[in-house]
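Protocol step 4 of 6: structure prediction from sequence.
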Amino acid sequence: MPTTITTRLLAVTLVFSTLGCASYFSPALLDSRIVTPISRDSRVLSIKEPMVWYDTNPPKVGILFPAGDYPLVAEDSEYLFYSAPKDIEMRTFSNGNLTEKRASPGGMFIAKSSFSTEPAGAYVDEGGNSFLRIWRLGREFLDMRGSKWELSE
């Protein structure tokens, strides 16, 4: 498991690599959350095939969510956190070409409220009870429920 400093540097690199163009909405974010572990819950988010999300076309940064079952592992007041079956992969591009890939333990978060401005996204595990939200997913992701991913109740 990477140290908190390594995880933070990875996330900061992801965010700053998107700052070259301020005229578009960047899905990257840095938001550390103190979470409460959940141990006796059977809810699972299932991704049917790997999902890759990019910031722009051509991309500057991207993120890959591996296929598989993501068990619910933690929550805070706004989000439920589901742990990926394998590390999530952050990617950096230059002129449309992949320049760097880094994998980190983490997963997906889903907002508890359907009115959230950040309904879903990616987080990396900072260790202890701290998760760092690093990527926003919006309505497009939610609309894929049933076809690309499922959420058990």
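Step 5 (inspection) to follow. DSSP finds two helices and 13 strands in the chain.
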